[in-house]
Each structure stands twice: as C-alpha cells, then as structure tokens.
TrEMBL record, chain A:
Main location: nucleus
GO cellular component, one term: nucleus
Similarity-based family: Belongs to the DDB1 family.
Protein name, per record: DNA damage-binding protein 1
Protein localization: Nucleus
Keywords: Nucleus, Phytochrome signaling pathway
Organism: Arachis hypogaea
The RSE1/DDB1/CPSF1 first beta-propeller domain, residue ranges: 16-344
Automatic annotation (TrEMBL), chain B:
Residue ranges of domain DET1- and DDB1-associated protein in the record: 56-120
Entry's Gene Ontology BP terms: positive regulation of proteasomal ubiquitin-dependent protein catabolic process
Polar residues bias (residue ranges): 71-80
One GO CC term, this protein: Cul4-RING E3 ubiquitin ligase complex
Region (Disordered): 71-94, 126-148
Domain of life: Eukaryota
Family label: Belongs to the DDA1 family.
The species this protein was found in: Arachis hypogaea (Peanut)
Record's protein name: DET1- and DDB1-associated protein 1 domain-containing protein
Length: 1088, 148
C-alpha cells in the first residue's frame, strides 16, 4: 500500500437523521425530504407511494434540515445547516430541474464552545428570522427582511448554558423562543424570550415554567389556534402556554422523535427509545386546551424522525434500524397494533463492527456487518455483484453456442435449449418430470455446429449452420425450407430475429434473408472489402420482430459498421482504433435510449449512442470488462432488458437513471449465456462455464446486494472462523422491564444459515469487548478468544475483565481457558503464536502454556504501559500499532530475545482515535472522532533518535463519517492480471451505515487523478455553494488543514454522470480524451 | 355471496367509512381485549383506550386523496430498492446573489453591548411611554448582561 490513497463510498449513508414534508419541487408537489447525514434525498408523494426523485450530496454533515415558506412564495425553500457551521437556503427550479442557492453563509464564531447537545437550527413560523444555537451561551439570529431576503447575522447572549431544546412559538406578535434548559442543580426549566431584532437582544417572554420532569428533553410548539408548547419528559408530558398548563403522566419512556399530524396541532406521533409509536392528542374546546391524552399505536423501528405524509401514511426515519413507510389503521390487527409496515428502507447504520469473508468460496469478499442497535440490531451480508442462484447443472464440455426456442410462436415459455458444439448440435428440452433431457428437432441438422438459432414467425424455427439456413416448423419439427450458401463459401457468422436472418460468408459476403411462412428469401447481398467478424440485427425499433438496422464488425480495418435493412446500404462506419478485432456487436435499447455495444477480443467493451433514424454513432465510451473475448446477449429480468457480457469476468450491463452501469456476476468464467424462460425454471438463464451447463435465476440487477439477518439484539463484535464455518458475535440484549436491563452474550452462528447454534452468557455487568479467531504455537486447534470488561456502575473505568478462550466442539462453544485481567480487554490480536491484548492503559502479551494436566492456560509474558486507553491494536510481524483514546497512533515493537515490548515511535498529535489499520510496513492509517482520516509514516531513516521516534503525518482528509472499523479486503473479485487487481484496498464501516473503500494508488495514477479531481471541482460544484476543498480539509478542535494525499473517489467517479459537454470541458482541462478518462474512471468504479 | 347469519362474523374487506359495520367490530374488539387483561395492569386504561381510539384514530389529514391510493403492498420484509439519481450541481446558480452571502456581524457582542450603553448615555432620556416592557426598558443594567 502507499501514502497515495483514494477514498470512495461503496454503500452510501443510510442513517436517517432528519425528515420534513412540504411543497418543494413545485407548489402542487408534496415532497418528503430526508437527510442521511451527508446526503439529502427528495421524494415525491404519488398514488403509487413514495417516488424517489433525487439524491443530493451535501459537502457537510447536516445538522439542521428545515423547509420554510417565505412571504409571497408559492413553494417551500430548504434550509440546511452543517456541523462545520455552514448553511444554505435551496430552492428547486422545476423548469431546469436544478437546485438554486438562494442564500448561503458561514455562521461560525471565532470564539465559542460548541454545544454539548448538538446544534439547534429553527425558523420562525412567521419567517422573520432563523435562529441557531451553535455555541454555549449564544443564540445566533439571521433576520429576514420583508422581501424574504436574509440579512447579516448577529449573536445574542443566552443566559442558559445547558440548553436541551429551543423552539419558536406560534402566534406571537414578536418572534418568541422557548428554551428548555437544565440549571447547575440538574433541574430542568422552560423559559420564553422575545427576540428584539432592533436591539439585537432578548426581551423576557410571556411565560416560564420551572421544575419540569427531570427527563424533559423535547419541545413541540403547537400551531394556532391553540399555540403554546408541549414539553415531553420521561414520565410526564406538559402543555404550557401563557394562560394554560396541563400535564399527564406517561409510561416511563424516552421520546426520540415526533411528527405533527394535524395542521392545527391537535395530534402528534411520538416515537420512543424502544420503537413504540404513540399518539398524543390535545383535547380542546373553543380554542382552549382542556387536556392531553396519549395512546400507544404499535411498534416501528426506533425512530430518529417521524413525518406524517398523507392519508394516514407516515415515514419513520431511523438511525438504529431500517427506516419505514407505515400506515395508521383505524382498527388494530391481531396483535393489537394500529401500525402496518408497508415498506422498509435498508439502513446498515450504525456499523459497529464487520468482517470480510468469502462464504461462497468464489474468491470474492463479502462484508458481514454488525448493524443497527437495541431491538433493531442485525447482521447484514453485503455482497458486490449479481449472484446466480443455481437451479440445475450438467457437465458439458466444449459448448460453442446456446439458444432457447419456443415450441410455438405464442408460447410464453421456452421449450428447447439448443446447445452447439464444435461438430454437433444437441437439443435439450424439459420433460414432464421437469427434467432437462435430450430431444430432437428433426428439421435441424445436428451433425454440425450451429452458428445461430432463433424463433421465427408462423410457428417456425431457424437454424444457421456453416453451409445453410434451415427453416423448421416448431409444431411438426420438420424442415420447411432451406437456403444454401453458394458452393465454395461457408457461413462464418450469422444472426437472426423472428423475421430476418443476416449472415456472412468468407470473402466478406454479407447476405440478408427474410423469413415468410415456409419461405426463406434472399433479399440482398453485399460484398464488403474485408472479412466480417460479428453481426447483429436485434430489433430495437417499434417492431419487436424486425430490425431496420444491422451492425457489422470487421476484421482488418477494425471497424464497426451500421447498414440499413433490407437494402444493406452502409450508413455509418466507425473505426475502433487499435488492433483488436470486434468479437461481438449488439444493438440494444435501455430506458428508451438506443446503444450499439461492441466487444473486443481483449475484454474491452465500447459503447456508442445510436441514432436509430440516421444510424449515427456518438458518445463513444470504452470500458475494460475482462481480458478474454466477450460475447454479448440480451436477457430480461423483471420485465427489464439487460445485457449479459460473457467472458472471463462476466458482467451484466444495465441502465439506471439513463446511465449504463456494469455489475459483476459472481461467477468465475462464462463462455456463453442465453435466456431460458421455461415453465419449470421461469426467468432463468442458461450459462456455459468451465465444462458445465448451469440453469439458474439471476439476482435483482443492482450493484450491492444486502441480506438482513435480524437478531432482535445488538451485535457489537463479529468474527469468522473458517475451520468451523461459524461466526461468533458479542451481543447484548436489552430488556427494559427486567431487573438487569442488559444481558451480554457470546453467540456462535452457522455461517450459512446464520442461526444461533450455541450461546455463552457473560456474567452480570460483563460486556463482550472484542472477539478474534486465532491459534497458538504448539497447538493445532483454532480458538475464539473473547475479551470482556466488568462495567460496574460505581467505576469510571473498568478495573476487571476476562479473556475467554473457546473451542468449537460439535457446534458448541466450549470454554477452554479463562484469564482474569486488570481492566477492560479492548482489543485482541493473534501475535507470533501468542495473544496480544490491549487492557486499559496497557498492551499485554500472553503465551499459551501447556499445563501438566494436559490443559492450556494463558500466561502473561510481557507488557507495555503508557497509553490513556489502548483501544485499537493492529500487528504486523513484530510491530504493534496502537490507536489510543486520545493520543493518536503509536508504534511498538516486540523484542523476542528480551521478551519485551518497547515503544518505537508515536504521533504526537492529540487525535481521539476510532480505528487504526496498518497499510504497509511503514504506513499506518487512522480514523478519529472528528470524522477525519489520516496516515502516518514510520521514519526509519531519521538521523536522530528524536526523528525516528516520530510518526510523520503524511496524509490528511475529512471523510465526514465516523469509522468504527477498518479491514483489509475487497468487495469485488480481484483478477490478478487486471490493473485494478493490483491495487490494495482497505474497507471501512461507519456509524451512518457507509461501507467505503480506501485504495492505495501508484504515484502516477494518484497525480493523474488529483488533476482530474481539481478539474472536476470547477465543473461539479457543491450544492448550496458549499466548497469541496473546505469540506475535505482535515478539521478537528485543534486545527484545520487542507486535505493531502487522499482523493475523493465519489467526486472523481461522478465524472461518469456528466453529460458530454461537461465531460469535454473536464477532458480539455486535464488534457486527456473523454474516452480515456471514462475508461480510467470506470476502472476505479470496479474497486467497489 | 354473503350468508346473512354469518355476516357479522365476517370481517368486511373495507369498512373504514361504513357505519353499518361498527357494531360487530366493537364487540369483536372487546372480546379481543378481555383476553390480555391478565397482562394488562389497568382494565380502565384498556377500556378508555378503546373509546379514545375510536375518536382519535380517524380523520387523518388528507392533502391529496390520491396519494398512496395505488400503493402496491409489497412484502414488508423485503426492503425497497429504488435508488434515486444522484444530483450534481453543474450549473452556475450554486452561488447566491452577493448580498445573500451571509456572515455574522464582526462586532463582538460584548463590544456591541458597551457601545450600546455608551450611546444610550449620550442620547436624551426617552419618554416613559416608549418603554413598553418596564423591566427591560429601565435604565438599570441587567446584572447578567454585564457579567459576560
């Protein structure tokens, strides 16, 4: 690995932090707008449900997301404030479909202590000002003028230092806030202030309310006519206004989110920490509040945000589980719940830990994450590429081609599967027992290789061999007509559709035939100057049985040509460049756009936009799919057409949002593929690979596949053991009603079924902190080692823990040894046949000793003090890299002869670490709690001890994500002979559910991409005017410096989303052709 | 199709707006609810909730009655996979008008307070009627604002 790193998102954030509903994209549209930390999603409410419109990347972590309606406007504006003190106001221009920045700015102060309870951003309901509480003791005001324009912001001193919530009150003649705060005796109160814009100060407000519920944490302002505010506590809910006070007791619960139901504010949905959804009702008479009522409705994911949509449908955004679309029913279901979950939206966050495994043993990594929290905890299996679910397979060597045929034109299903070999053609068909057995079509010639077969109109079948074209009745299976190649010429390539046949013989002869009822008629013949290598007449026009265009690939001049049919006039000739001949051409249409795909003999694929009326080819793009010749075929799955590219690296080409995407198929090598939609195997594919014919269905066509395994408890650590084919997890189960609200377990899971097969409960107060699978010197067994901590309520830091060594025997966890430690075992590593543990401040090495009675025990060998808390440890050879709670990274070395661990070097910055990884002998990667990434380098060549004792910071970058874990590995199958296969990668998982990849690039590639990145910054601008450079600058409490030696892969890969003009613009700035840029960026997308 | 004698025991497919079906539903509800009483600590609570539910769990706001009317009820255990297109800002309207680039006023709030006081001393006394809120309008400085 190297110091030049490329950071890219493989799975976008899914943790929903904010949501709001309003008329954003037009005055008539009702939109749901969702914030997923660094992205905003805009959805449209439609009769069919929620329709996703846009996913907008924001150069910042979103702290506030609010819709508001400025005076005299017909639609809402979106206010976004970021955690790094930037804000913007966005407006949707529906004519151009663009997000326009109405206003933006920086609301940071030079001096100030950031609030402990997060940033608060609120907008006055009468749109007189925006209020921000970003620093303790300060309330920032951005006033609106009477035209709805923002004016210079100013601060007001806020006496309350421990603010829990601030909201604007409705129906006040002057903008009025209510502040919920805690005093220095931990009592909670609410107080109101009027904001005097003229004096830039607060004026005492109309009321205050002292001594609220000790758990009061949330304010809900009530709109007119009632006005006032609801104060949500853990045991009471209070309604407060200048002239009314009502309170009700509630079942103890922590309310995490609320959503207003009625515009008049008489009903609210409340979501609590256990996922219980309740309805809070304000009863009122003559605009006077008479009381409050709360009713439980049912269970949802633990909500972080609730938005009432329309017609009893509600969006539940979650940070701890999948977000949901629910419906509120008027009648309860069998379980008494009024909540019906209609859709789930995957959320991987928080990813607390994960491991990379190859469960299917295909040489491809899958990520298994510990996702979610509390009751919504789950394991998620994340896999790149498209899987084939094998239904049947048979050993067949030397397949040269395959076609499926129907027994009549109107038949919905395929009956025959024609398999062609070098010197014969065999026909398989489904028999009554749904087995594939060999059959015969009498009219077909079975002693020779078939070049092409197809269903034809009038219940006919077509077979093309090297000598003739045979037209056969599909009902009688008898030959009806035959066209013979002129003597002395043999047919080399051929293609057919339901009414047409196009073939090429040696000498560059191109012959076009049409199919009638029992008739094969030669319509046209053309002589080309060179030999023809491939052909296609796949109908992409209005007539599904007839094509007006033919695509022809040529030897010698290496070109692809478009001919018109039936007259075989040359319309377009496109030289391909290079010396590799085209091996497969395909006319296809995706999402209403026509393409010509042309696959070369070296695994490259060219694609062109095809103008079907003029035959013109534009927008040439080139990608590398594999290294062997590619064969292209279309197939459909779920009523959508896709292209299968069979090669040493099989790929499905599909279109999403009018952009061609390439997704790996999780098979090693495929020589031929044809769709085979039989009654027994509907929607299947027949695939020829490695001496085998397989029939299987294909996964949904998308890049990442996620399988959820709900656990109902919170998995915190995971580890895979190849030998026992099991996973082990450390998990905890919450049971709020029990005496012990948390119970911790070590659980063993089967790695195929993911069922719990064995459980080891930990002691009371004992937490599972880490788990590894390892073996020891002089012992051939493999063990799971678990590090634990006794978290006693009276202790600040655990002073006791255990290391438990388990063996898997008969599918059971068997405790083999245990060792008490003097603190929490935060990390464990297999190290030189021994066990290296990080225990509070100390790194401790244990050896595995055989006792006289034949049992083993862990015996302390040596240790190293000097950390605040050694939380994350990685090892390589004798080197130990420690990530400290607050002292960044240090490097230790184990000295065998002396049996001692010594510090070699450290990074003297005060980074609070969240994960570390060793990239190579000299370079270590760290993530810290201000969402930054950095790399440090060991300085072995330093002149002095002091220099050698310093880890030099060589790379810095703001990721904007909290990383919990790094693991070496790859999400994609790595081909050693491809360029991308040489690039080492590290995978990371974050709180927001992001799975990302850090790839170490060769220096020249880094330099090239850095140039591309800076050109892209000028073309793709930050939404809301936010700067990409500032966003990616390394920033924590101590310093902010420009990013270096890290590249933003997300920005670089968005090059592929640009239109041609913008691509040209970038291409000119970089000085590299668009085609070359596309190819190089496309290759990078294959890293994840 | 519906035999009258079994009519009441049948759950009608859609009954939200049909008064006729209220009676059987209610009785059905009560029979359901009597079952879990042993688990529930408060019988009254259950009964109240029953009455309340009837009145509050209806009339959900509707902005467009068509919204969600044709929602296909897919299997909720399968997650929704529709991915929206990624938006890229490639126009030049990402920068707001110059006067809409907002910053905080440079004057520190302590200095602002001092200047304000100094100005107040210089300006002649305002008429008492101007001071709408006596506590604030009084010349007596608030201790809190001085102790910044």
């Amino acid at each position: 690995m190297s110091i030049w790193n490329y950071v890219v998102t493989a799975h976008k954030p899914t943790n929903v932090t904010h949501s709001c509903v309003g008329n954003f994209t037009s005055p008539q549209d009702l939109n749901l707008i969702i914030a997923k930390c660094t992205r905003v999603e805009i959805h449209l409410l439609t009769p069919q449900g929620l329709q996703p419109m846009l996913d907008v990347p924001i150069y910042g972590r979103i702290a506030t997301l609010e819709l508001f309606r400025s005076h005299g406007e017909a639609q809402d504006f979106l206010f976004i404030a970021t955690e790094r003190y930037k804000f913007c106001v966005l407006q949707w221009d529906s004519e151009t479909s663009e997000l326009v920045t109405r206003a933006m700015g920086d609301v940071s102060d030079r001096i100030g202590r950031a609030t402990d309870n997060g940033q608060i951003g609120i907008i006055d309901p009468d749109c007189r000002l925006i209020g921000l509480h970003l620093y303790d003791g300060l309330f920032k005001v951005i006033p609106f003028d009477n035209r709805g324009q923002l004016k210079e912001a100013f601060n007001i001193r806020l006496e309350e230092l421990q603010v829990l919530d601030i909201k604007f009150l409705y129906g006040c003649s002057k903008p009025t806030i209510v502040v919920l705060y805690q005093d220095n005796k931990d009592a909670r109160h609410a107080k109101t202030y009027e904001v005097s814009l003229k004096d830039k100060d607060f004026v005492e407000g109309p009321w205050s309310q002292n001594n609220l519920d000790n758990g009061a944490d949330l304010l809900i302002p009530v709109p007119p006519p009632l006005c006032g505010v609801l104060i949500i506590g853990e045991e009471t809910i209070v309604y407060c206004s200048a002239n009314a006070f009502k309170a009700i007791p509630i079942r103890p619960s922590i309310t995490k989110a609320y959503g207003r139901v009625d515009p008049d504010g008489s009903r609210y949905l409340l979501g609590d920490h256990t996922g219980l959804l309740s309805l809070l009702v304000i009863t009122h008479e003559k605009e006077k509040v008479t009381g409050l009522k709360i009713e439980p409705l049912g269970e949802t994911s633990i909500a972080s945000t609730i938005s009432y949509l329309d017609n009893a449908f509600v969006y539940i955004g979650s940070s701890y589980g999948d977000s949901q679309l629910i419906k509120l029913n008027q009648q309860p279901d069998a379980k008494g719940s009024y909540v019906e979950v209609l859709e789930r939206y995957v959320n991987l966050g928080p990813i607390v830990d994960f491991c990379v495994v190859d469960l299917e043993r295909q040489g491809q990594g899958q990520v298994v994450t510990c996702s979610g929290a509390y009751k919504d905890g789950s394991l998620r299996v994340v896999r790149n590429g498209i899987g084939i679910n094998e239904q049947a397979s048979v050993e067949l060597q030397g397949i040269k081609g395959m076609w499926s045929l129907r027994s009549s034109t109107d038949d919905l299903f395929d009956t025959f599967l024609v398999v062609s070999f070098i010197s014969e053609t065999r026909i398989l068909a489904m028999n009554l027992e749904d087995e594939l057995e060999e059959t015969e079509i009498e009219g077909f010639c079975s002693q020779v290789q078939s070049l092409s077969c197809h269903d034809a109109v009038h219940n006919q079948l077509v077979q093309v061999t090297s000598s003739s074209v045979r037209l056969v009745s599909s009902t009688t299976r008898e030959l009806r007509n035959e066209w013979h190649a002129p003597s002395g010429y043999s047919i080399n390539v051929a293609t057919a559709n339901a009414t047409q046949v196009l073939l090429a013989t040696g000498g560059g002869h191109l012959v076009y035939l049409e199919i009638g009822d029992g008739i094969l008629q030669e319509i046209k013949h053309a002589q080309l100057e060179y030999e023809i290598s491939c052909l296609d007449i796949n109908p992409i026009g209005e007539n599904p049985n007839h094509s007006n265009l033919a695509a022809v690939g040529m030897w010698t001049d290496i070109s692809v040509r478009i001919f018109s049919l039936p007259d075989l006039n040359l319309i377009t000739k496109e030289p391909l460049g290079g010396e590799i001949i085209p091996r497969s051409v395909l006319l296809c249409a995706f999402e209403g756009i026509s393409y010509l795909l042309c696959a070369l003999g070296d695994g490259h694929l060219l694609n062109f936009l095809l103008n079907t009326s003029t035959g013109e080819l534009t927008d040439r793009k080139k990608v590398s799919l594999g290294t062997q010749p590619i064969t292209l075929r279309t197939f459909s799955s779920k009523n959508t057409t896709h292209v299968f590219a069979a090669s040493d690296r099989p790929t499905v080409i599909y279109s999403s949002n009018k952009k061609l995407l390439y997704s790996n198929v999780n098979l090693k090598e495929v020589s031929h593929m044809c769709p085979f939609n039989s009654a027994a195997f509907p929607d299947s594919l027949a695939i020829a690979k490695e001496g085998e014919l397989t029939i299987g269905t294909i996964d949904d066509i998308q890049k990442l596949h996620i399988r959820s395994i709900p656990l109902g408890e919170h998995a915190r650590r995971i580890c895979h053991q190849e030998q026992s084919r099991t996973f082990a997890i450390c998990s905890l189960k919450y049971n709020p009603s029990a005496e012990e609200p948390e119970t911790h377990f070590v659980r063993l899971l089967d790695d195929q079924t993911f069922e719990f097969i064995s459980t080891y409960p930990l002691d009371t107060y004992e937490y599972g902190c880490f788990i590894i699978s390892c073996s020891f010197s002089d012992d051939s067994n493999v063990y799971y080692c678990v590090g634990t901590a006794y978290v006693l309520p009276e202790e600040n830091e655990p002073s006791k823990g255990r290391i438990l060594v388990f063996a898997v025997e008969d599918g059971k966890l068997q405790l083999i040894a245990e060792k008490e430690t003097k603190g929490a075992v935060y990390c464990l590593n297999a190290f030189n046949g021994k066990l290296l543990a990080a225990i509070n401040q100390k790194i401790q090495l244990y050896k595995w000793v055989l006792r006289d009675d034949g049992t083993h025990e862990l015996q302390s060998e040596c240790g190293h003090h000097g950390h605040i808390l050694a939380l994350y440890v990685q090892t390589r050879g004798d080197f130990i890299v420690v990530g400290d709670l607050m002292k960044s990274i240090s490097l230790l070395i184990y000295k065998h002869e002396e049996g001692a661990i010594e510090e070699r070097a450290r990074d003297y910055n005060a980074n609070w670490m969240s994960a570390v990884e060793i990239l190579d002998d000299d370079i270590y990667l760290g993530a810290e709690n201000s969402f930054n990434l950095f790399t440090v380098r060991k300085n072995s060549e330093g002149a002095t001890d002091e220099e050698r004792g310093r880890l030099e910071v060589v790379g810095e970058y703001h990721l904007g994500e909290f990383i919990n874990r790094f693991r070496h590995g790859s999400l994609v199958m790595r081909l050693p002979d491809s360029e991308v296969g040489q690039i080492p990668t590290v995978i990371f998982g974050t709180i927001n559910g992001v799975i990302g990849v850090i790839a170490s690039l060769p220096h020249d590639q880094y330099v090239f991409l850095e140039k591309l990145q800076s050109s892209l910054r000028k073309v793709i601008k930050g939404v809301g005017g936010l700067s990409h450079e500032q966003w990616r600058s390394f920033s924590n409490d101590k310093k902010t410096v420009e990013a270096r030696n890290f590249l933003d892969g997300d920005l670089i890969e968005s090059f592929l989303d640009l239109n041609r003009n913008k691509m040209d613009e970038v291409s000119q700035a970089v000085g590299v052709s668009v085609e070359e840029l596309c190819k190089r960026v496309e290759e990078l997308t294959r890293l994840h | 199709m519906v035999v009258p004698s079994t009519f009441y025991s049948q759950q009608p497919p859609f009954c939200a707006h049909n008064q006729f079906h209220h009676i059987p539903e209610r009785s059905q509800l009560i029979s359901q609810i009597t079952l879990p009483i042993s688990h529930s600590s408060n019988f009254l609570e259950v009964c109240c909730s029953l009455c309340l539910m009837d009145s509050v769990l209806g009339n959900w706001p509707s902005y467009d009655p068509h919204n969600f009317s044709q929602l296909r009820t897919s299997d909720p255990s399968r997650s929704s996979k529709m991915a929206p297109a990624t938006y890229h800002s490639i126009h030049n309207r990402d920068v707001p008008p110059a006067d809409q680039v907002i910053n905080t006023e440079h004057k520190n709030i302590l200095l602002r307070e001092i200047y304000r006081r100094a100005e107040e001393k210089l300006t002649p006394k305002r008429a008492a009627s101007d001071n709408l809120i006596p506590e604030h309008g009084s010349k007596q400085p608030r201790v809190s604002t001085l102790s910044f």
